[in-house]
């Protein structure tokens, strides 16, 4: 590699975090090193979205061209039962019973042991410095407080629960007013926590004083997590799923992630050869119908260790044969009745056929790729904004509310979605997630693109469109992310379009039977990295709908 050759590229929802990732690559770190350092930085800067009190999924492509995935999703404490959540609205989202055992650091530990080049402690240094010295309050976080966390049905920014939170109100407000953009925020307790983990390893989080403080904070708020739960947590290596799409291999992460839903939609769309152009009526209609058929299969998903036959089933419903069969159900001139979108042929898996999609807004995605061919596409989440709203006083750790991602028998969640048996609560089980990081390789097996998204159920539709924009329409990361987005998940019976969609196209979609609902801005947040193996050119981009998102090429 000469001095002019790039070392790789990175992307995230934070310009600062992406800069950290690029610097790690410049130091000779691997893509895994960069992904870990970036995610730690995002969790420090964007505590509403991410952090070591959560977990997620990583998709890794090795320099040899094989893909593997890692499940470090938070797990239900051993003692929980579904009865604890019956007739108790909100307990799965706020408080001690909302908290699942965090998995992020065990995931990072497993990745670093296998693919890390720089010392573990080096990856924590930028985040320790940020937390200790301070960083500016961003417009993105202000919007979360003033718009996205305010009381349902209220237009008053001060109706947000953040203004009453014992920790966040002191950190983000003064005299009842949100601090102005650019105000320096510090997290001294969190800095000390990160420094301890940097020096002592992930075990410092899962046993000892940090673990004890987490358990005490959870139990003080009515939870049942124990030190044994913390000590027992392990990241799981899982074989990924892949399909052929338009002459390329697209790989994603299986259940309890939702890569199978993304790949199922793409498997259907692969059968349409007369692509009509991005944003066209035909293209939007077919994509929407494919998404609805794919979401119908999501009723099957849960933790494969608790759902017999699920591994085989999800490989079947992303198969070419099933894609061809479902393509025949799509009529270019009409939508189907809602009951026609169903997972036919999978009656052996327990499901009531209802569609349930939880909203996990506190989520973030990063991508890192290096010149060796090592690629990481990683989604991490604390579920809703600031997770369970429990912030451990002694450590500054924001604890997840991943129990909200489970289903409870007979109970609809806050968003009105009905429960699905494959995702019922059980001790040690990991809840279903919409996350679906992806990697694209060309016909010669060479890396071409990696991406992913945050945004609850919109992750699926965003990732499907992201892949199509790259492969069907030859867009680079910037263009692929900027293109107007749509979303449909069967229930509710609505097709969501960003306001930037052409109004005549929307009118034609309504004529076909879609109920169009306009969104000012799509709620998904994505990023992507591309590589041209012929020219060696790298490109990277962050979400254009967020002020501070960015990609970076490392030289």
TrEMBL record:
InterPro entries: GGT_lsub (IPR043138), GGT_peptidase (IPR000101), GGT_ssub_C (IPR043137), Ntn_hydrolases_N (IPR029055). Pathway: Sulfur metabolism; glutathione metabolism. Transmembrane segments: none annotated. The keyword Acyltransferase applies. Keywords: Acyltransferase, Hydrolase, Transferase. GO terms for molecular function: glutathione hydrolase activity; leukotriene C4 gamma-glutamyl transferase activity. GO terms for biological process: glutathione catabolic process. L-glutamate binds at residues 73, 405, 433-434, 456. Pfam families: G_glu_transpept. One of its GO terms (cellular component) is plasma membrane. The active site is at 363 (nucleophile). It catalyses: glutathione + H2O = L-cysteinylglycine + L-glutamate; an S-substituted glutathione + H2O = an S-substituted L-cysteinylglycine + L-glutamate; an N-terminal (5-L-glutamyl)-[peptide] + an alpha-amino acid = 5-L-glutamyl amino acid + an N-terminal L-alpha-aminoacyl-[peptide]. It comes from the Eukaryota. The keyword Cell cycle does not apply. Its EC number is 2.3.2.2, 3.4.19.13. Cleaves the gamma-glutamyl peptide bond of glutathione and glutathione conjugates. NCBIfam families: g_glut_trans. This is Glutathione hydrolase. It comes from Schizophyllum amplum.
